[in-house]
Write a structure and sequence with these properties.
This protein has eleven helices and seven strands. By secondary structure, the protein is α/β, with parallel strands linked by helices. The chain has two domains: 191 residues, no CATH class; 127 residues, secretion proteins EscU (name from scop). The longest helix has 41 residues. InterPro entries: T3SS_substrate_exporter (IPR006135), T3SS_substrate_exporter_C (IPR029025).
Length: 363
C-alpha cells in the first residue's frame, strides 16, 4: 500500500523534525552524567564548606560576647556569600555536563513550535494510548528497573556504613563527616554509573522509536522529492523558456557580426571581431532550423557568409556563445576575416562565399 510508512525519513524530514524538537533523546543521560561529575567535585566542595563553616563558627563566641546586630548580619552575609561561591563550581559543572549531553544527542536548538498550543496534546485518548502502548510499557519497566537497581546500590553502600554510624558518638565531628562524605560520594558514583547504563539503553530505545515515527510512505517521499527538486514538467518549461530567451538574444546579435561561417546548410556560426576587446567572439551559433535562421538574418543584414565545413563544425562544437574563440582557432579565423576584408574592399562582401583557403587543422 502506498500509505504504509516503510521508507526511512529523508534528510529534509529529519531536518524539519529537528526544528520542531522531535529528536530522539533521553533526559536521563544528562541527569546521570551530571551526577557523576558532581561526585568528582563534591569532596572538594564539602571540604571548602567545612573550612568556611569553621571560620564562621570561630566568630560566633565573639558575636555572643558583643551582641551587635551589624556584626550578626555581617556574619550571615558572609555565610551566604561563602555558600554561594562554594556551590557555584558544582552547579556550573552540572549545567555544562547537561548541555554537552543534550548536544551529543542531536544538538541544541530552541524548538519554538513546541511553545505553540496544540489541542491534540490535550486529547485524553492520546495520553491513554501512550500509557498502555509500547512507550508506556517501556517507561514503566524503566522506572521499575531504576528503582530496583538504585535500591540495591543504596543497600550495598549503607550496610557498610551503618556500624560506623551506630558508634558515631565516639568519633570526632570531622571524622564522622569524612565517613559520611565518603559514603555519599561512593553512593552517588555507583548510582550514576548504573544510571548511565540505563540512560544509554533508554537513548537507543527512544531514538529507535522516534526514527520509526518519522518513517515515510513511498508517496510522501515522492512528494517531498518533487517539492525539493521541483516538478519535472515545470522545470522543463523553465528550461524551454531559458533556451528561447538565449536564442532570442543571440539572434539579436547576428546583425552585429562580421562574418557567418557555415557548413554550408546544417551549421552556422556568427563571429564578431573588435580588436580593442581581444580575440574574435562567437555571437551566435546553431544547427538545423537555428542555423537557417542565422543565415536568413545574415542575408537580411548583408553579413557575409563563408563556407568552411571543418571550421564551422569545430567552432560550433568547441566555442560558447559570448566567449572568445580558443587560441587554436586564431589562424583559421584570421584567414576567414582577411578573406572577408578583401571582399569588402571590392564592395562584394554581402552574400554567400566559399573560403578559397580552408584550414584542415581547424577541424
Amino acid at each position: 500500500m502506498s500509505g504504509e510508512k516503510t521508507e526511512e525519513p529523508t534528510a529534509q524530514k529529519l531536518k524539519k523534525a529537528k526544528q520542531e524538537g522531535q529528536i530522539g533523546r533521553t533526559q536521563d543521560l544528562g541527569a546521570w552524567a551530571g551526577m557523576l561529575a558532581a561526585s568528582i567535585i563534591l569532596p572538594r566542595t564539602l571540604a571548602k564548606a567545612m573550612e568556611h563553616a569553621e571560620e564562621l563558627m570561630a566568630k560566633v563566641p565573639e558575636t555572643i560576647a558583643d551582641p551587635d546586630p551589624a556584626k550578626a548580619l555581617g556574619i550571615l552575609k558572609e555565610g551566604l556569600m561563602g555558600a554561594a561561591w562554594t556551590v557555584l563550581p558544582l552547579a556550573l559543572t552540572m549545567m555544562a555536563v547537561g548541555i554537552v549531553a543534550a548536544g551529543a544527542q542531536g544538538g541544541i536548538r530552541v524548538a519554538t513550535k513546541l511553545f505553540k498550543p496544540k489541542f491534540n496534546r490535550l486529547n485524553p485518548f492520546t495520553g491513554i494510548k501512550r500509557m498502555v502502548g509500547p512507550q508506556g510499557l517501556w517507561e514503566g519497566a524503566k522506572a521499575l528497573i531504576k528503582t530496583t537497581v538504585l535500591g540495591v546500590v543504596l543497600y550495598l553502600t549503607m550496610k557498610d556504613i551503618i556500624p560506623t554510624l551506630m558508634t558515631a558518638g565516639q568519633l570526632p565531628l570531622r571524622s564522622l563527616i569524612g565517613v559520611i562524605n565518603d559514603a555519599a560520594v561512593q553512593l552517588i558514583r555507583a548510582a550514576a554509573a548504573v544510571g548511565l547504563v540505563m540512560a544509554a539503553a533508554d537513548y537507543f530505545v527512544v531514538r529507535r522509536r522516534t526514527r520509526k515515527q518519522l518513517k515515510m510512505s513511498k508517496e510522501e517521499v515522492k512528494q517531498e522529492h518533487k517539492n525539493t527538486e521541483g516538478d519535472p514538467l515545470i522545470k522543463a518549461q523553465i528550461r524551454a523558456k531559458q533556451h528561447a530567451m538565449a536564442r532570442n538574444r543571440q539572434m539579436a546579435d547576428v546583425p552585429t557580426a562580421d562574418v557567418v561561417v557555415v557548413n554550408p546548410v546544417h551549421i552556422a556560426v556568427a563571429l564578431r571581431y573588435e580588436p580593442e576587446k581581444g580575440a574574435p567572439r562567437v555571437v551566435a551559433k546553431g544547427q538545423g532550423p537555428l542555423a537557417a535562421k542565422i543565415r536568413d538574418l545574415a542575408t537580411e543584414n548583408r553579413i557575409p557568409m563563408v563556407q568552411d565545413v571543418p571550421l564551422a563544425r569545430a567552432l560550433n562544437k568547441d566555442c560558447e556563445i559570448g566567449q572568445e574563440i580558443p587560441a587554436e582557432f586564431y589562424g583559421a579565423v584570421a584567414k576567414v576575416l582577411a578573406f572577408v576584408m578583401s571582399l569588402k574592399a571590392r564592395g562584394a562582401a554581402a552574400g554567400f562565399h566559399r573560403n578559397p583557403n580552408p584550414t584542415p587543422a581547424a577541424a
